[in-house]
Design goal:
The structure is a homodimer. By secondary structure, the first copy, chain A, is an alpha/beta fold. Helix content of chain A is 44%, strand content 15%. Chain A binds a DNA duplex through helix 2 and helix 4.
Chain lengths: 331, 331
Amino acid sequence: MKRPTIHDVAAAAGVSRGTVSRLLNGDKYVSPAARVAIERAISETGYVVNRAARSLVTQRTGSIVMVLSEPHEKLFEDPNYSTLIRVSIRMLAERDLSLVMMLAGDEGDRERVVRYVRGGHADGVLLVSTHAGDPLLDALRTGPPAVSCGAVIGRETVIPYAAADERLGARQMTEYFVGLGRRRIAMITGPMDTPGGIQRLEGFADVLGRKATSKLIAHGDWTQASGERAMTELLGRTPDIDAVFVASDLMAAGALAALRAAGRRVPDDVAVGGFDDSPVALSTHPPLTTIRQPLAEMAQETVRLLLALIDGAGHVEPVILPTELVIRDSA
Amino acid sequence: MKRPTIHDVAAAAGVSRGTVSRLLNGDKYVSPAARVAIERAISETGYVVNRAARSLVTQRTGSIVMVLSEPHEKLFEDPNYSTLIRVSIRMLAERDLSLVMMLAGDEGDRERVVRYVRGGHADGVLLVSTHAGDPLLDALRTGPPAVSCGAVIGRETVIPYAAADERLGARQMTEYFVGLGRRRIAMITGPMDTPGGIQRLEGFADVLGRKATSKLIAHGDWTQASGERAMTELLGRTPDIDAVFVASDLMAAGALAALRAAGRRVPDDVAVGGFDDSPVALSTHPPLTTIRQPLAEMAQETVRLLLALIDGAGHVEPVILPTELVIRDSA
DNA sequence: AAAGCTTCTGTGAACGTGCACAGTAATGCG
DNA sequence: CGCATTACTGTGCACGTTCACAGAAGCTTT
C-alpha cells in the first residue's frame, strides 16, 4: 500500500493541499476548525511529509553533514567525538534536521565530501578536527555555511568555531605544578600542526617563561605509544624532572608506563598532568589529574553557530569556553 | 548562480535529458560519442545529480539510518562504535548511500526514529546495541530492511545480525584460566538483558560447569564503577578467588582498582581477564589480557547483510564471527 | 526487397511538495 | 451603508529527475 500524500490528508480533512501545507509549515492563517480536521486526518492516515518533494521546491535538504577529518586509524580514539555526535544529533533533531556522517581521511574521501556539499545535499557543514591547511577548507568556501568544533587554523580561510580555551587549560595545569613547588616541569605536546598541539604549549610557556627550554619539551602525536616514547626521551635528556604536563590523557597513560619502567613514583617523584579528562584518566594508575574541556557546551555552541548562519546571520564570532582543572592522584 | 541541472548537461552535450540520465544510471544503451560528450559536459558544468528529485521518482532516499539505542550517558563509552561508524560510512559510500545518525534513548527519540523510517526517509536501518524487547523492534517490522550489529534477542521479532561469538570468547578466557591452573575462578557479567551479558556468562558456565556457582558470579552494568563494586562484592563473598573473568575491559579496569585496594597482586594473587580489547586494556596497570572481537568484520558483515536485503534478498542468515584471546600481563 | 533485430535517442508524464496569487467571507471603521 | 481590512482557502506552477514508450537508424536474416 502506498504512503499517504498531502493530497490524501487534504481529502480526508475536507480541505485543500494548500491549507494542509500551511498547517505543516506553521503559517498562521489556518482556521481552528481546519486545524483539528487536518490533525485528525494526519494521525488517521499516518501521514509523514515527503522530504524529497519538499527539498525539491524549497532548495533545502534538511540535513547537516558532519565531516570527520581524522586519519582513519585514529578516528574516535578520542572519545570526545561521542559527545559531539550525541549533542549534535539532539540539537539538530529539534529543528528537524538530520545528521549525515562523512569521512575525509584521504583525497578520495575529500572529493566525495566536496561533491556532496556543492551538489547541494546539505544545508550546513560541521567540521571536526580539521587540520591546518586542509584543502577541504578552500573547497568549502562557497556553498552552505560551515563551522568547526575546535579551532581551525587556516591560511586565509577563516571558519567560525567553538572551542575550549586550550591555552588557559595549559596555564591552569602548569600553575598548579608551580603551586605544588615543582621546579623542573617538562611538557609532552601534541602534533604542532593542530590547535591543541600549539596552544597547549603556548599556555605552558606563558607560565614558565624562559624556564620552558627545549630540553624540557618533547612532542607526541596523541597516541599512547608516542607519550611513552616522549617520556622516555625526556627522562634521558633531563633526569631530574619532577613534573610533566602531557597534552592528552592518552599520551599521559603512555608517560605513566614509561615512568613506571624507569622506577619513578607518581606523584612522589614526578607529578603527571593530562588533558581532556577522558575516560582513560580514570583507568590509569594512579588516576590522572587533568584538564576538563566543556565538551557538551563546545558541541552545543558549535551547532548553535551553524544554525545561526543557516538562519541568515552574516557573521558570527568564535566561541571560546573555559577549561577546568580536575585534581586526582597523579599530581 | 544556479546549480546546473540535467537539462544544462544535456544541452551542453547536445543530447537529451534521457541520454544523460541513462549514462548516469549505467544503462548500456549510450553511444560512445554521446558518452564522451556528456562526460565532458558534466565536468565542465560541475553537474551533481539532485538527490531530492531522484528520490521523488525512484522512491529511494539514498540514505541508511544508524540507530543508537544506548541510553545517552553511556553512549560511546564503548569505543567499538567508532569502528562500526567508520566501516559503515565507507562501505555505504561505495554504493553512494549516506549514513544518517539517530538516537533512540528515550520514548520521544524512538518515536522520531519510527516516524523517520516509516515516512520513507531511509532505505535501510542499522540498529546498534538494541536491547531485548525494545519497542522499536516491533515498530520496525514493516518498512525498509533492518539489521543489527550485535545479536538482538527479541520475543517474536527476529532481525538479522552480525556478531562476535561471545560465548566462544568467554570459553576461551575461562579455559585459559583453567590451563593456568587457577582453581577459584569468578566472573563479573554485564547486564543480563543484553546478549553480551547473557552469552559471556554462558561461555563461562560451559567450561566450569557446576563449579560456576552463584557465589562466584557478580553483575555489573558495563561501567568502570560497577566493575569495581562487583569485584569488592566478590572479594567479600569469596576471598580465596584466584582469577576473575570480567565481561568488559572497562569493568575490568574497575576490578583492578578494587583488587589493588584490597592488596591483591595481579596476576600473582588474582588473574584478571577482560573482554573487548578496547584501548583501555592498554592503559591499565598491568595491561589487560582480554578477548578481541573482530569489530571491523562485524561491521562489514552487518552492512553486507543490509545491502543484501536492500538488493532484494528475501532472507539472510545471521553471521557469527570468532573471537581471539589476547594475552597481556594481567593473566 | 521486405522484415526483423539491435542499438541508440528524444519526449511526455509523474513523483509530492511549497509558494505566489487570486479569490471569498467576515469583520471593523468612518 | 460603503469600503477597507483581516482571516482564511483553493489552484496552478515549478522544482529536477527517472521511466515507459515511441521512434529512427543501421545491420542481419528471410
